[in-house]
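Students often ask why we bother encoding 3D structure as a string. The short answer is that it lets us treat folding as translation between two languages. Here is a chain of 190 residues written in the first language.
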Amino acid sequence: MIHDSRRSLLRDAALQIPFLLWLVVLWMLLWHQFTPLALVSGLVVAVFVTRVFRLPTVELVGRVNVWHAFLFVLQFLGAVVSGAAAVTVQVFDFRRQPGAAIIGVPLRYADDIVMTHVAVTSSLIPGSLVVEADRDRRILYLHVIGVRTKADVDEFRGKVLRWERRIVRALGTPAQHRALREDERRGGER
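And here it is in the second language, the structure alphabet:
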């Protein structure tokens, strides 16, 4: 039993090394110094931050569907371009102000990693920004411009849920992928 707990601690520590190194590099970039002192002080700060502000360990499953990831990137780039064009049109249409709303989107398949990917994707597409993420209930709250009616709200909510499905297809766990396929088989949205 003790041997298993030691092995688990060593595995967790090994998973933290890339994150610690990233924090050290970030510290050195922040100070614009690549000196031994910056390295040591960055290491001290990184260890302090990871011990004081403890985050749950996220287990990566290593499942990446290359085809769906490629499709996701293409669709994302298209959405960025079309979102930028839509925002530009809304800004320069002096006849009316673009409507705005805070919209809650309950995610269906999200764990921490998928929820983060959906939030980042939604925020990077012009016209929307995540203002809050309710991790316990798996709800993203987004500020969206160009929303005037309930139909617009439902349409936007559907877009975010489509991004969630695309991300699950590309990066989801096998359990998430099975749940998505089961919902699609039962006639859910694609």
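Translate back mentally: The first helix runs from residue 2 to 31. Keep this in mind for the problem set.
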